[in-house]
Every structure is written in structure tokens, then in C-alpha cells.
Amino acid sequence: MVILDIGLPGGDGFIVMERLKAMVALACAPVIIVSAQDPLAAEAWAVEAGAKAFLQKPVDTEQLVATIEKTLRESGTPPKKPA
């Protein structure tokens, strides 16, 4: 799983997403996008690019954990609970 902020300093998360999807080893890794950018444009792009979820900053910790768990379940990798 990759949690990617598309507003990276000195770079562009959109390019990072494209590169992740082009890498054989990571192409199937589920991606959750987080962003402080305009949610309408950023979320539409994220979905089109193949992200499994989009979260608007500031991200609530409980919302992030729930999104991670849901994304892992949907990808066939159930989250592991601490012992």
C-alpha cells in the first residue's frame, strides 16, 4: 500500500502516481491519495489515475485508519491486528 500526498515539495505527486503504476513491482499496490488541493479536481484525477481512495487534508486519524483497513480488505490483504 502507498499513501501519497500529491502536493510534494520540489515535485509532483501526480508524476509519482504515474511512475508507481508504470513499475511492475508496484503497479498493483493500492494507493490512497491525500491532498490539500481543490478536492473536486484532485479527487477526480486520483480516481482516474487508479487510486483506491482519496482523503482531503487535514486527515482525521480514525478516517485514515478506516480507509487503510477498507483498502487492504478490498485488495485481498486483510490488515493485521496487533497481538
> What summary fits the major beta sheet?
3 strands, parallel
Q: Which band does the percent of strand residues land in?
A: 15-25%
What's the total count of β strands?
3
Spatial separation of the terminal alpha carbons: 21 Å
Radius of gyration: 13 Å
- What fraction, in percent, of the residue positions are helical? 40-55%
pLDDT < 50 stretches: none
Query: Which structural class is indicated by helix and strand composition?
Result: alpha/beta
Helix-strand string: EHEHEH
Mean pLDDT: 88
- Spatial order of strands in the largest sheet: 1-2-3
Helix count, per DSSP? 3
Shape: globular
Would you mind describing this structure in some detail?
The protein has a domain at 13-27 and 44-52 and 69-77. It has 3 helices and 3 strands. It has helices at 13-22, 39-49, 61-74, and strands at 2-5, 31-35, 53-56. The mean pLDDT is 88.
